[in-house]
């Protein structure tokens, strides 16, 4: 099994993702937020690229969420902080969400066989799901404005490590590209204090400056949620068996 880690959405070619399992990462904060919404009862999430697409999809019973420049989009119900999706208001709702990087990466992966929303919060569950599908795996870091982001790389390293253990136990031969191997070593280096590492990276510093320190702390937690949300028919949802740990 081949595992390929791509540093940013700008470096991904849609045709190269055909017949593969793609794990899309946007730790700060899109995939972390979408996962949190599903874990708190959101019925389904529609990730779209633009504000216009989000408004066009809106209908009774649907809510709008998303950000531009880390701030809630005017007129939307929610922003992109996971803490906005932790109460009963999101339970049973359909969420349409657009973010600067994460939802674009999900759209870029539309030709893949399976697309899974991954973060530090659910790395173990995502690795388990991807390994079970028994196809070559692409780990796509969303990045920021087409540039690699440290926190996504650390999550990629987490996923590579989890996959390495799972495939070894199964006796499955596997390989990982050099960038993925580098991210595995980076994750191992900061694993003992991931919160500090994320607070010191560019996106972590920016979010803290904007008042979202708690978001960074929350998004740095490992394997808090045992859920691997999958995109099907343009919407992200989770199996009924998944739950918060």
Automatic annotation (TrEMBL):
InterPro entries: ComB-like (IPR005238), ComB-like_sf (IPR036702). It catalyses: (2R)-O-phospho-3-sulfolactate + H2O = (2R)-3-sulfolactate + phosphate. Its cofactor is Mg(2+). GO terms for molecular function: 2-phosphosulfolactate phosphatase activity; magnesium ion binding; sulfopyruvate decarboxylase activity. Keywords: Hydrolase, Magnesium. Pfam families: 2-ph_phosp (PF04029). Its EC number is 3.1.3.71. SUPFAM superfamilies: ComB-like. Belongs to the ComB family. PANTHER family: 2-PHOSPHOSULFOLACTATE PHOSPHATASE-RELATED. This is Probable 2-phosphosulfolactate phosphatase.
């Amino acid at each position: 099994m081949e595992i390929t880690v791509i540093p940013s959405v700008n470096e991904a070619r849609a045709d190269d993702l055909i017949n593969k399992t793609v794990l899309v990462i946007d730790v700060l904060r899109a995939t972390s937020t979408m996962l949190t919404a599903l874990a708190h009862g959101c019925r389904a999430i529609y990730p779209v690229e633009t504000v216009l697409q989000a408004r066009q999809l809106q209908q009774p019973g649907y809510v709008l969420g998303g950000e531009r420049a880390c701030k809630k989009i005017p007129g939307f119900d929610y922003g992109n902080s996971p803490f906005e999706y932790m109460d009963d208001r999101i339970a049973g709702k359909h969420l349409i969400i657009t973010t600067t990087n994460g939802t674009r990466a999900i759209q870029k992966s539309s030709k893949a066989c399976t697309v899974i929303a991954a973060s530090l919060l659910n790395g173990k569950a995502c690795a388990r799901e991807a390994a079970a599908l028994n196809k070559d795996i692409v780990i796509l870091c969303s990045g920021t404005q087409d540039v690699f982001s440290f926190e996504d790389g650390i999550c990629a390293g987490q996923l590579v490590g989890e996959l390495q253990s799972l495939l070894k136990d199964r006796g499955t031969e596997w390989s990982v590209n050099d960038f993925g191997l580098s991210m595995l070593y980076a994750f191992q280096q900061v694993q003992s204090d991931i919160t500090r590492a994320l607070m010191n990276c560019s996106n972590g510093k920016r979010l803290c400056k904007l008042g979202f320190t708690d978001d960074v702390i929350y998004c740095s937690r490992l394997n808090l949620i045992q859920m691997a949300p999958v995109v099907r028919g343009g919407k992200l949802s989770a199996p009924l068996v998944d739950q918060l740990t």
